[in-house]
Each structure stands twice: as C-alpha cells, then as structure tokens.
Amino acid sequence: MVYRVVSTKLTEEEHTKLLDICNKQGCTPSALIKDSIMKKINETENKGGMESTTFLEKFNHKRL
Predict the structure, then answer these.
(1) How many CB atoms lie within 10 A of CB 44?
(2) CB-based burial of residue 22 (10 Å sphere; 0-12 exposed, 13-18 middle, 19+ buried)?
(3) Would the CA dihedral through 58, 59, 62, 63 be positive or negative?
(4) C-beta separation of 32 from 22 below 8 A
(5) Could you tell me the residue ranges of all domains in the chain?
(6) What are phi and psi of 46, to 5 degrees?
(7) What is the Cα–Cα distance from 55 to 31, expressed in whole angstroms?
(8) Is 51 within 8 Å of 62 (Cβ atoms)?
(9) Which of 15, 16, 20, 36 could join 10 in a cystine, given CB atoms 3.0 to 4.6 angstroms apart?
(10) Which pTM value belongs to this model?
(11) Tens digits of per-residue pLDDT, 6-48?
C-alpha cells in the first residue's frame, strides 16, 4: 500500500488547540487528523457526494 501525505497550515492558536485535544484524547495529531478526514469522506460518500460542495463552500480556498 502506498501512503500519501496531506498537510495544512495552522495558526499558532489552532495548533495549540489541536495539541490540547490530542493530549486529552491520548492520540497523536496525525491520528486525529486522519480520523477527521476519513469521517468527512465517509459522510460525503454516504450522502451521495452532495456534501462535499457544501463543505468546501464554507471555506475561502486560495491556490498558492
């Protein structure tokens, strides 16, 4: 199996919140991020793909 890397930029405040949640749940940031991504993918697939557009419209994505 081939694994791919997914990354994002977080503000210092967002990063602190992420680490706090991980410490409380006893998991790594990678595990929490992967779980969150997979839950969103599963939700989207179970709703027939309609959720992904609505989800993405909530954010202002800019190409680098």
Answers:
(1) 16
(2) middle
(3) negative
(4) yes
(5) 20-57
(6) -70, -20
(7) 22
(8) no
(9) 15
(10) 0.67
(11) 999 999 999 999 999 999 999 999 999 999 999 999 999 998 7
